[in-house]
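User: quick one - fold this with acetoacetyl-coenzyme A bound?
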Amino acid sequence: MAWALTPLTEEQREIQKVAREFALAEIAPYSEAWDRDQYFEPAIVAKLGALGFLGMMIPEQYDGLGLDTLTYLVALEEIAIVDASVAVMLSVHNSLPTQMLLRWGSEEQKERFLKPLARGELLGAFALSEPEAGSDAASLQTQAVRDGDDWILNGTKAWVSSGTKGDVILAMARTDSPDDRRGARGISTFIITPDLPGFSIGKKEDKMGLRASPTVQLRFSDMRVPGDRLLGQQGNGFIYAMQSLDNGRLGIAAQSVGIAEAALRHAVAYAAERKQFGKPIKEFQAIQFKLADMACRVASARALLHMSATAKDRGERITQFGSMAKLTASETAMWVTTQAIQIFGGYGYVKEYPVERLFRDAKVTEIYEGTSEIQRIVIARELYSHT
Ligand code: CAA
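Assistant: Sure. Structure tokens for the protein plus acetoacetyl-coenzyme A:
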């Protein structure tokens, strides 16, 4: 299984194999414990960095591997099949902060931040949401005020993945003034590092799933940010965030396909070995139909994802495809993991078997980087934008 619906090149198959072997050797033995203990293993970042996996789509000129999107997503799926928490760390790092620096960073910012991020010496994070600004991201309230050459930032960012370990955080803040609000156009992006005075890590969330991926609030209290940490143009931060999320959503789709693929494999194996009424349960049509539907949905989600990735690599705008792939794959992950638990019966409901974790991990894919409802809004809007 886990066949590619887009024919993969030899290089893509080789990188897929490297990712698969790495995940099985370096992650699989520890996943259950990391989930139980909510433990994030820093050594994994260094090891993935040594493979080049933290700069997969960054050109060699900036110390990355210079791979295309499809290759990155194929590798990401292999990691997600084994551990969705490690996968989200990789997805956020490769899709959001590094791509933002590549696209809108100055040469000095690329030298200072992008190169070490691509080498895996630093880990990247992305801070858009706030306690009162989730789906309505443009309503964020973190305020940046000019002070000479510097900016002073005040506010709280929420739901920041890899937040306790993020060395370089691309954060969105308002740069319009409270008496001249400019909506989405009043938001800018700043390159934040934890050494800035006034930076602190707030509440760590105790989550249902992805427990080995630390999700935190970040507090900025009169945080002094040097002027050269502004990314790109003042007032373009919301657009940068949206354009980056178009790509980020492909990463979450790959993570979702990986979770679904893992649940399908476990269900196939269990149905062959579990006997009831004198025969393996795979011989009952009720189980066969479920497995067939699960396989169809996983294959369909992967096909849409690969199609979207190749569209992006051709340079096409993928706002609609990004949302379609993310919506389809995340709902597939939730549906397939639910069916897998049903096939396992009582054993699916306990932590002794892996489908319980897959089910918990799947849920957030319908929520973060835009809920399923937001994806439907984006898809529907795009249907009208071309008429
Ligand atoms: N590409 C380029 N520009 C875009 C864009 C895109 N995909 N989407 C919007 N824009 C532009 C619009 O064209 C508009 O520009 P102008 O000012 O020039 O007209 C501007 O941005 C404002 O756009 P909208 O009027 O459409 O904005 P809106 O307030 O109606 O919001 C939304 C649109 C789609 C609902 C958006 O708020 C959204 O995506 N919300 C979900 C937020 C989200 O995904 N959060 C994820 C948090 S990050 C996370 O989860 C990461 C993690 O750690 C795992």
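One thing worth noting: The longest helix spans residues 237-273.
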